[in-house]
Amino acid sequence: MDFRVFSPISRRAVMRAALAAPFLPGGGRSEEPGGKPISYVRAVSASDIDAHAAFGWELLSTILERTRSTHGDYTLAMSSDPAQALRFRHANSSSDIQVNVVILTISPEWNDILLPVRIPVLRGLLGYRLLLAHRQDLDRFNGIKTLEDLRRITFGSVKHWLDTTIMEKAGLSVVTGTTFDGLHKMMQARRFEALTRGVHEIESETASIANDPDSDIVVVPHLLMHYYLPVYFWFSRDKEGQRRAERVKAGLSAMVADGSFERMFDSRFGPVIQKYDLAHRTIIELPNPLLSPEDPVNDPRYWYKPRT
Q: Which CATH number among 3.40.190.10, 3.60.140.10, 3.30.2290.10, 3.90.1150.10 corresponds to the domain 3-124+230-275?
């Protein structure tokens, strides 16, 4: 197997973050049988360029470091095989699985296969959606204040995205494509009027648009769509996976309790949240029918909320 150690932020930075916050009491040590350090292995993926993936792996590093005294030593590595994340998601029908942790949104099909730590890695930021539209069409959006108003707009979305199901179930008109790059071409051809992107994703989108002299696509100034869309750490449901999940849950719960998780979130995403002035946008809520009763949508400790 081809592994290399993954170190997204310096050990010194991780140690500073870990030592800055106290541990919650309780929790057993989680070394593997024989006293070996517990291992965490994730897959390399093109999605590492996404802000939520990069933040999630930094968060995992911090969690493991700060739980060292209560749960023992650990190793954190990365498989060089990008197919590993997909194999892990389909563990019941896959072989040669090298990874043991992935970062995923919710999905009913994974609940019986994988074990999530139900504390949202992004504090729900993925569910806050900015709208992209043609500059010359902005007048169509000026009077939109409600979900009923939003149903006048045609949206583009990738067919297999959860966002597509959420928007369709809310009664929005959605034109689907097979790839994100394809959506941009469809929008330029005016197959639909708007795209939505997570707040943390918008900077890379606008940078790409700025490099296209033929594009007139802009962020719609006053609107913000929202639905609960948690992103979790997921593990296998066997004994080893449960042990890994327990450690991550203990460490992340401690970070929620002492505020260090929120501070880490604010440090990473605060600038883009402020830039797009989320607190003063008209927020249109959409229900998410894909949520499980186990998803902690009623626990305000876990979720970002725009505040003035």
A: 3.40.190.10
